[in-house]
Amino acid sequence: MPSSASLAPALRCAVAMSIVGASIVASAALSTYPLFGGQAVRYAVAALCLLAVLRWRRLPFVLPSPRQAGRLTALAATGLTGFSVFVVLATRHADPSLVGAVVGATPVVLAVTQAVRERRPAVRTLAAAATVTAGVVLIEGFGSADPLGLALAAGALACEAAFSLVAVPLLPSLGALRVSAYACCAAVPQLVVLGLLAPGPLLAVPSAEELAALAYLAVVVTAVAFLLWYGGLARIGAARAGLFAGLMPVAALATSIALGTEAVTPHAVAGTVLTALGLVLGLLPARRAAVLAGRANDHEDGEDRRGRPRPEKAAVRPAAAPAPRASGPAR
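The structure corresponding to this sequence follows.
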């Protein structure tokens, strides 16, 4: 089991990614609705919800510095606007299963990025990320794609990684609630501009099904999941939090099976088991994970012998400046 200090944030990340994965049904209901206008409405409603929570909790409104505003704009352009657009366009040139498998490499990207930043190979985290990614590929399977489809899927992968990496420096000073709210606010004008430039209407009168899907995506998938994700990310770091991206296809598969639109297959079961093993390997305290992986070293990933984060690796927040955040997120 993870140490008590990391269990709660790990659960937040797990729930956030499960919500995102299960939202595929809602997204499918918007397949014929204007893309940019629909996403703009989604993020506008989510921003209002998050700002209302900020006021309800009597947390002060913190004006971002120019540097923070630039990073928030980049976060919205990549992790919110960019990801949504890349995924939709990629599925027009590639099988959804292939797009999901490519995006499923997010844990590896985040683990490698952390290893490069720390200038040391986080062997256990890298191994766990590779295991989770392999499980995702088994669940999603392989599909066909043209070169443009592969490029667009790679763009979605980059945006998914940026959703965490770009946000990490903002969390210590702004907190999960403000980062989530401000990023949603920044995404709205971006999507409106894209919608005005794209052919077709910016908005349309939604059907009852489309209205329900937009409401679910805005409140649950965006407002709630973002807050959960960024709260967990601030505590356990991008590499470990990224492992939970492997839960997206698992949740999507479980939802499809529950609705009767997809059947249980051996490769999906094997992929789910492999994903779970990768999560266990990445989240166990160092000593237990070393035994599981057949390694003798129990000091990886910044943990001490008891599985607690070392002081210098404990969180992304500076010890001398606690984060003024609401709570402990995907999209």
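The two ends are 27 Å apart (CA to CA).
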